[in-house]
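Forwarding the complex inputs:
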Amino acid sequence: MRFDRDSKFYTVTFTFIVSFVFLIVLSGLNAMTSQQVKKNQELFMVRAVLNAMGIPYENDEEAINVFKSKITVEMKDSYSLFSSEVDGETVYAILFNGSGLWGNISGVLAVDSNVSRIVGIDFISQSETPGLGGRIEESWFKEQFRNEAIVNDKIVVSTAKVSDSKDDGLVDAITGATLTSKSIEKIIATYIPVLKSLLGVN
Amino acid sequence: MSNFKKILKNNFWLENPVIVQILGICSTLAVTNNLKNTLIMTIGVTLVTALSNFTISAMRNLIPRKVRMITQVLVISFYVIMVDIVLRAYVPDVSKALGPYVGLIITNCIIMGRAEAFAQGNKPLISFWDGFTAGLGYMFVLVVVAFFRELLGFGTILGFQVVPNSFPKWTVMVMPPSAFFVLASLIWIIRGMQIKKDVSQSSGGEKK
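Prediction (whole assembly, two chains):
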């Protein structure tokens, strides 16, 4: 007997089997790579902490070793607080989470021991528009924050051209990505008071 | 064999998916301000188009007509998710840079278009070739658009500074609307060339 390709029974069976087979393959692949993906995510976190604190490393393996040997992690009020000695000074870093234009932006914010200057910032994950908001990952944007003074508990990400001064608490926004830039400003303004209370600085 | 050549010529030039069929415009606008992202994205689209065409063609005699489209979408999303998983596991940095755009390959009209127009009625191998060349045609257009947008918008090519710093950057080139200008100019130039050739061929034919 030849299949009746338009019968209801055949249609339903076909759809079921095809979806089933494809799903099995995909979930198999997902299970196979999940370990790797998890490792990658940890690595992103480790690299972000090191970048934000301004600790140099050569490659991924070294990054993990440096992280293990130099950085201490402690839990305080449900935040994980990283600390390390960089050039003789104690530097603190915190993981942050906040909403960007399209989705969650997470990363690491590092400050000096009396929360007067940003030591550095780096991002772990973001889903901003590639080529526009996604450029927050580019080093020119992140380097602007390096050693920038914190004025009134925040850093202003300005859409107007700002001077190179590190004492004014101003950095340049990304052209064409004002909303993402402003989200970063908001996230930093949220986490500086958090850091201050964690470190007991006023 | 000449069939393969004809498909290549059609998909790449005469019936280029973006320039002539005006398909896949959404991604053309979105990802073309940066050449590196464009390259990875178009490679993904090319692979997905080729493989999904192959698969759909291989099972074309089994697919019930009523669920034809659903099955096509299923196959396409299967490959897109596969690309996404592989990128995330083995080239995490690229996956990070592309963000949500990998998932959006599913909605690229070119893939669905080739599946419906070609793979549904042709043998697997030639369908694979058809999808592959359609992807190449798409890649060609996007790379040209991205080249000009990155050059004028950032003054760089693949991230390398190529124009002097004093060059005024065209901010508009970074924004999505500029893709309309660049793409429209490109369509204008290429269609102009194609139509001119058509006209000269047909008038030459009359003389004989």
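The mean pLDDT of chain B is 86.
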